[in-house]
Amino acid sequence: MGLAAENTKLTLYGDSPQRYKDFVNEFGSSTNNFPVTLSWARDRRDSAIWTTSGTTHRLFGEVSIPGGDLDYYKLSYHQKWFYPISDFFTLMLNGEFGYGDGYSGKPLPFFKNFFAGGNNSVRGYDLNSLGPRDERNLTLGGSKRIVGNIEVLFPVPFMKEDRSLRLSTFLDGGTVFEKNIDFNLMRYSAGVALTWISPMGPLKVSVAKPLNDEPTDRLQAFQFMFGQQF
After folding, report:
1. What's the whole-model pTM score?
2. What pLDDT shows up at residue 48?
């Protein structure tokens, strides 16, 4: 559980996005917020580094309490499931869902939106680039987030005893929504990835090909993530 105090200041310029201007018109250029957070996690994997079976569950909630300028709430759930296909191959299924909204007649602040795209959601698309756009083609984020991944993990050929290196093939899907959930707007990609548990921390490199991208999408075939478990 957690309680925080936040102060957000926005400075407007002539070319500031319209959502910034709308927010300042409604709330002013400086807002105070007191969010209460609650998180719960359960990890039943057989290994945090070389997982072959088990599950992880993570539930997170955030709500602003009276006394501040903002009234909103957010809830997200994240689950992974690992299943050993054989001695060397492991199936991993990942699902994430997030939902947020305002209350007392106030909207969810734009800087509390969910985002998707990149190496922690849908690989092959630029980081946080999926979902609704404004008139300048800038990503807005959304109040709802859906992400799913199917990944098959296996050792590097001729290095099966090395538990610091692991290959995988994957299929990713997901996006964020501002209003109604429309699965026709989901983006998908497929590719291969290499995970290395280096002395400085875990590193994951992926090469992905988007499967249903649109001309306005920002693509990034090669991506990497460093410094956290996956």
Report:
1. 0.90
2. 87
